[in-house]
Specification:
307 residues, Arginase, Chain A, 8 strands, globular
Length: 307
């Protein structure tokens, strides 16, 4: 039985479309604690994090938006995720836009480094998020966390990332929207990029199992960052960065079931849920349902809904 720790991260500073700060409340209303407990796991809700005093930081790229707030959230989340892991917990960070991964992955990396274990990263997202504060043209910092995690330059305003995760320990899944500058930077590195064409050609199972085999062989910890836009917008509309052609309901549940069966996942992000854009809570409920699959719920456990 896992000791699951829910951490609310009401973060809107990584982009300019308001609403993601309501994400943690939406997950609670959608029954995330009940879903986890139904699989016989212990659940603790540590509540929502709050910003401390904002740091005095600057960036040479004047397009960068809400830098101080994002750096502040990174520091708070880094410490809280590290605390949860240090207490033997399985932290689930409920966001909040994807800039929260700057802090959650840093906390996981700090803990993994102390344990002498390599950290691996599974990035379930339509976007590569491989810009740096110096290369972003939109200025939206939710497009930068993977570059920070990988140790790219340009993050001087942020806490130094503990033990950057090398490219060969990063696996992107569901990618279908990449800027040219990001693509050029990724092609210089050996990141596993499973875009939707790869998934169409090879399916979900083979590339994911290959990555999980590598995690297991290395005795690694696995941080999973799940963006709502990993899913097709027809089933998950509550995101401000919709990209057509995402994973289906069945594919997404298969990913989660495979992750559960691996027993390798040690921390999880749930990001970019904007309840203001949702249709009667359908996206929040689907994301909670996916967490259920990650925690051990099987297809045959799901009740038939009334027709």
């Amino acid at each position: 039985m896992a000791r699951t720790i829910l951490i609310g991260a009401p973060i809107d500073s990584g982009q300019r479309r308001p609403g993601c700060l309501m994400g943690p409340a939406a997950y609670r209303v959608a029954g995330i604690a009940r879903e986890i407990a139904s699989e016989l796991h212990q659940v603790e809700d540590w509540g929502d994090l709050a910003l401390q005093d904002l740091p005095q930081v600057t960036c040479a790229n004047l397009a960068v938006d809400q830098l101080a707030e994002t750096v502040g959230w990174t520091r708070v989340l880094m410490g809280r995720v590290d605390d949860a892991l240090s207490q033997g917990g399985f932290p689930i960070v409920m966001g909040g836009d994807h800039s929260l991964a700057l802090g959650s992955a840093a906390g996981a990396a700090a803990y993994a480094e102390r344990q002498g274990r390599p950290l691996f990263l599974l990035w379930l997202d339509a976007h590569s998020d491989f810009h740096t504060p110096l290369t972003t043209t939109s200025g939206n910092l939710h497009g930068t966390p993977l570059a920070y995690i990988n140790g790219r330059d340009g993050f001087d305003a942020f806490p130094p990332f503990p033990a950057p995760v090398p490219a060969e320990r990063i696996c992107m899944f569901g990618i279908r929207s990449v800027d040219p500058a990001e693509q050029a930077a990724m092609q210089e590195r050996d990141i596993q990029i499973n875009d939707m064409r790869v998934i169409d050609e090879r399916g979900i199972v083979a590339p994911l199992r290959e990555f999980l085999t590598a995690v297991r062989a290395a005795g690694g910890m696995l941080h999973v960052s799940l963006d709502v836009d990993f899913l097709d917008p027809s089933i998950a509309p509550a995101v401000g960065t919709t990209v057509p052609g995402g994973t289906t309901f069945r594919e997404a549940h298969l990913v989660m079931e495979l992750l559960h069966e691996s027993g390798l996942v040690t921390s999880l992000d749930l990001v970019e849920l904007n309840p203001f854009l949702d249709d009667r809570g359908m996206t929040a409920r689907l994301m909670v349902d996916l967490v259920g699959s990650l925690m051990g719920k099987k297809v045959f456990d799901r009740p038939t809904r009334a027709k």
